[in-house]
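Hi there, hope your week has been kind to you so far. Thanks so much in advance, here it is.
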Amino acid sequence: FVIFVGSAARADEVTFSANAPMVVTAGESFRVEFSLNATPDDDSFEAPDFGAFDVLAGPAISQGHSIQIINGAMTKNVNYTITYVLLAQDAGNITIGPASIKVDKKRYKTQPLPIEISDKPSAGSAQASQGNSGSSDKSIEEEAQGQISKDDLLLRVHVSKQSVFKGEPLLATFKLYRRVTIVGYEDIKFPSFNGFWTQDIDVSNAMWQRETLNGKVYESTVVKECLLYPQQAVRS
């Protein structure tokens, strides 16, 4: 008989992400975590530029492994986390720069992570991470009890051009901005595009990302994107 010896395959493609609150209070410490789903190369982690944040502790490293066997196929899952404890002295906006790490000699980087520092606690702010669908323990119903302001949830449309000719395509991108946890947004009512022929673009893989809008830090995602073709010319 013959014995085949093989190693466990990795569960997914390599991902390296940063996780921290969107809004923190000046003078209070908080954690930022850098999570990797693989085993990194030795001494390959490069810490980010923390800007004006004070580093109180870190890096603290934790690592966990699990193996699944499904239909004879063995899959190895890895959770490698690097944690820092930070503090901001003053109110304002600070962006944590990209961190980087190597896996099998290939370098991976996190996205920049903007954080808003408030001079008072913000109970309605979401504590979700970049690219995450939301990690706050509060439901939207709980937060709705006098906690949500008109600036906590926004829908904006961005167009690629300000003027076009008849038949010339125009890209319209609808982005949802949040500072609170939301559950489902499938029932958004978009405007009708009278006078345009429309072609929808698939945005099912759109991820949540952080960005600053009007001096506030939001998580944003694309909820609709389409090409608009004007069917008639309009004189200005």
